[in-house]
Amino acid sequence: MALEKGAVVDGIVTGITNFGAFVSLPENKVGLIHISEVSNVFVKDVHDFLKVKDKVTVKVVSVDEKGKIGLSLKALMPPAPMQERKPGHSFENRHFEGKRFEGGNKHFEGGKRFEGKKRFEGKSFHGAPRPTGPVSFEDKLSRFLKESDDRLLDLKRNTESKRGGRGARRGD
């Protein structure tokens, strides 16, 4: 019986690596179960799911022209249950009340233009201390844009001083 894509066969795990497990198949053939095909949940270490000399039933997912056989345990498992999301945490339920974000390194908060002139006096380079507790996406985005504008302003000031200022001629 030649192994074909889609065939379900029994085998014995002969070796485990960090990228998957090798399985001895009928007719003295060897196939590989890639780490992504071991289970329908995240697999950090194949040893958590398989051991050498385990008997497994696998599905052949590929056979290339060189004779390499790709196997899957995941294809024979029922789909993993979807994690239930909390109401109000999906992207569709988010809205940006009174906030507009436009290009040009300027951002808008509550309909008012923010020019990046506020500074964090006496604070660390990265800005104000982080608030504790849950932070909304809008707050994170606003904070990121504010810090980016501040860094860009500092960078521009630094490079202008090295070039001689705003359009000033050298040697006059």
Labels describing this entry:
single chain; 172 residues; alpha+beta; 5-stranded mixed barrel
How large a portion of the residues is in β-strands, by DSSP E? 15-25%
Helix content: 10-25%
Order of helices and strands: EEEEEEEH
> Count the strands?
7
Radius of gyration over all CA atoms, rounded: 29 Å
The largest β sheet comes out as: 5 strands, mixed, barrel
Shape descriptor = elongated
**Which structural class fits the helix and strand makeup?**
alpha+beta
Low-confidence parts: 101-109, 120-125
Give the N-to-C terminal Cα separation. 89 Å
pLDDT averaged residue by residue = 75
Structure description:
With 172 residues, the protein is α+β, with helices and mostly antiparallel strands. The protein is built from one helix and seven strands, in the order E-E-E-E-E-E-E-H. It has one helix at 137-163; strands spanning 8-17, 20-25, 29-34, 55-63, 69-72, 107-109, 112-114. The strands form two sheets. Strands 1-2-3-5-4 form a five-stranded mixed beta barrel. Strands 6-7 form a two-stranded antiparallel sheet. The longest helix is centred in the C-terminal third of the chain and has 27 residues, at 137-163. The model is unreliable at 101-109 and 120-125 (pLDDT under 50).
